[in-house]
Amino acid sequence: MTTGSELQMMSAQELTRIVLSKEQLFIIDVRNEGDFNDWKIEGEGIEVINIPYFELLDGVDPALDKIPDGEKVLVVCAKEGSSIFVAEQIVEAGRSHVYYLEGGMKSWSEHLEPVKIGDLKDGGAIYQFVRIGKGCLSYMVVSNGEAAIIDTPRMTHVFESFTEENKLQIRHTLDTHLHADHISGGRSLAEKTGATYWLPPKDADEVVFNYSKLEEGQVITVGGTQINIQPVYSPGHTIGSTSMIVDDQYLLSGDILFIESIGRPDLAGKAEDWVEDLRRTLYTRYKELSDDLIVLPAHFGKVSELGEGGKVSARLGDLYKNNLGLNIHDVDQFRRTVTENLPPQPNAYQEIRQTNMGKIVPTDEEQREMEIGPNRCAVHDK
């Protein structure tokens, strides 16, 4: 990325780093109003306005009037083409430092940014892969030349490149539950690398492929016997939802507990059936765990959940003090909170579940379209 008066391209990776470093950026989003209101680029230093493309076909004066003087400007659309058209006109009107987003919102939806969370014993480490455009979080546990990947998205090449660069062998891929907001890459990555694919069996009644059962009481090791991953059965988001304690330091909570909210129980159409499971997991099972565990969720819903360097994490004891979803003491109120007035369900969530069961096999482009939009896995993501 350079500077100057000519139109320039900005990659999703460059935009991610601007967001994570809280730099100032002015964005003109030229998608239609409905798509913009559903899902947009956000950040502490980001100012974003929506001017639909069709309003700029006769000239960009409506945009020029809104662009602050001297600021870096990024034009965004769904796939790239419309943003280039608009951005070129803004440059021709004499504005400098004008960019378009390479690949549009589709590329923003797919970018994964690795963030080191911390060290594990005997030289191991745990990394969080932040899918900032969709709010999905994946993890890699590393020890003694081996790696385990948790909640792998379909962009498996990112993990293949990371492990190749760091001379790691992928031994395990694990899903905390059967996902409804994104297509899992755990099984395909395991097939490519010879790893073992783990899935909670209570979420696997309808899957059409072989898997290893992720159940409480097992201990999965990484790097010989160096690092332990201990499954913790924690139903509520799905009937099979299973958290993981890594190295007695980290609680990978899947879609059960987030930093500012809790998981929704309705994405398999069984909200009323699973409310009690969710409450029992959050108010009893997790209470039995150490307050000092660092919670690492599978999603975030708001940019306010991004901490230093893009980390999404919090101490379990602090969440019991600060997370609204962990402080609803009336049982009936809890039931209403997690079953009524919920955010819209994720885009194509039924088809995504069918894909993750192996029942349908969409093309790559169909999978991209299915995943467009935010994750919406939390109760309070409105």
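The above is record 1. Record 2 follows with the same two-line structure.
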Amino acid sequence: MKRTILIVDDEKVLRESLAALMEDEGFEVLQAGNGREALDIVMARPVDLILSDVRMPEMDGEALLARLVQVAPETPVIMMTAYGAVENAVAAMRTGARDYLLKPVQFDDLLMKVERGLEFRDLSQSRRVMVDQIARDSAFENIVSEAPVMQRLFDQVRKLATVKSSVLIMGESGTGKELFARAIHFNGVTRNRPFVAVNCGAIPESLIESELFGHKRGAFTGAVRDRVGYFEAAGGGTIFLDEISTLPKNVQSALLRVLEERMVVPVGETRPRPIDVRVIAASNQDLEQMVRRGEFREDLLYRLNVVSLQLPPLRERRMDIPLLVHHFIARYTGEMNKRVTGITNGAMRAMLSHEWRGNVRELENVIERAVIFADGREILADDLPFVAAGTADAAGDDLKEALRQFERLHIVHCLRRCAYDKTEAAKLLGIGVSSLYRKMDELEIAKSPEPGPGFPAMR
């Protein structure tokens, strides 16, 4: 398809000359005598690039540019100006123009800048498609859960996505801390800005300040060029600091200064640089205990912990295991082009009773492995790495009974947490007191504490 260029200039002869040149190059060309006419055209149909004069009657080029930044931000604008008014074009570039041309326009210069402008548009559109895809991949729907505790976390994330406050995400390894960080970033005010994920534990101690804050050429052996740090690279967006507990004490002090002053000083420089970035930190360690042991700065913890999210381990939301199993079966059968017809009752019962020390990440890996070996049939208990070899799926396995036993264990667990206070337990379960009593009767749960193992206590 032909690319469409809109030429905006009140000088008709110049406008038509430029139009003829661009048509000879294979472009479709539209013309407007002032900014108001140009704006009407842009609102009525898509345009790939705009060439606009600065000085025009009714609506000049600067006013047009200000409106285009709002209504067509991905459309590159090249401003045309007389030699003596270059400062107007420079000011327009600060407002959002892609480039400028001096009059009289040189044809080679015009073609080069038009080509660059169209490349910029293509990159902008590709980036938008990529951001939209990442946002879909980071949507709440991809965090599979029906557990009440997770639903409350989703509500918190929706509110956090509308602001740029610091967030601290706590949870065991494999509980989805980065997935929650991405949901906060891509579902709110920062979705069109960078998301920079940093695994603090994977960076050598000698390099971590340089990686986070950047460095000046010659600052240390091996610094052969200037380098922008992760904080500046995340400008306007989010930096996700995973395993924040691994930061050395001297880097903790530097990070505290950055959070307080909103400035970074690259290694080897003396002048600070302003930053505009939201910090989301994550840890699988208890930072308050680390503070008491003198391993983590208390003032830094307060700075990071504006809002805290505590992600529960999978063993404390076992009701989600069947959902997660079917979710990952669907994902990996699609990715691997495998034909897995489901999962047997015995295998599901084994999944429900497993400890899941690696949480959702471990479950995902188990299902990925099972899909590889279960092509053309159901996933069997023997396909699960934590089930002893040769274990068969009993013919009488009943999934309803397995889920019934899980429901019973979950209710007993909640009753124990609430010291068998039925009103508090019903609130915790998200059901009415009468419904709780009915369930207790159906599942033969004693009205007072009973012996036997329940679920591990929530921390």
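The first helix runs from residue 12 to 24.
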